[in-house]
Amino acid sequence: MTMIKTLLLSLLVASVVACSHSYSVGNDFSEDKISQITEGQTTTSGLISLFGEPYSKVMISETHEKWLYFLASGQTKEQKSDALLEDMTTPAEPKHKMLSVLVSGDVVTSYGYVEGIL
After folding, report:
1. What are phi and psi for residue 47, nearest 5 degrees?
2. What does the longest C-alpha to C-alpha distance in the chain come to?
3. Which of 4, 70, 95, 117 could anchor a disulfide with 26, C-beta 3.0 to 4.6 Å?
4. What is the annotated signal peptide range for this record (predicted)?
5. 20 with 70: CB under 8 angstroms?
6. What DSSP line would sit under 40-84, residue for residue?
7. Exposure string for 95-109, b = 16+ CB within 10 A, e = fewer
8. CA dist 101 to 8, 11, 61, Å?
9. What's the pTM value of the predicted model, to 2 decimals?
């Protein structure tokens, strides 16, 4: 009987599985092209040519609109334990990059870029 208990315990321990899943939120864009933005000259059509459609556009005044290019990505490590019948998910070094562009009259007036680990 002790051998059966040991075997069952071994199977129970072996049933703990670790998996990883990738995720991303937003739209990827090339940060290498940011240097091609010129305040007072680059137009909204130029932005779309460089980066595609923004993740979001927000009117912040009657004359200014904020365009946001954003991507957050990473992996989660999912640990399943059949013994405990619960799932635990923890993020593994999520990364982000964000380009914020202020537009007035179809022309870029200012912009900023940040990236890093969340």
Report:
1. -60, -45
2. 82
3. 70
4. 1-18
5. no
6. TT-BHHHHHHHH-S-SEEEE-SSSEEEEEEEEEEEEEEEEEETTT
7. ebbbbebbbeeeebe
8. 60, 56, 14
9. 0.69
Identity of residue 77: K
**Cβ(100)–Cβ(111) under 8 Å?**
yes
pLDDT score of 11: 41
**Rg of the chain in Å (alpha carbons):** 24
Kindly give the pairing relationship between strand 64-81 and strand 17-26: antiparallel
Domains of the chain, by residue range, sit at: 18-117
Only one residue has tokens 């380009």, namely: 99
Q: d(Cα 115, Cα 118) in Å, to the nearest integer?
A: 9
Q: In whole angstroms, what is the distance from residue 104 CA to residue 85 CA?
A: 55
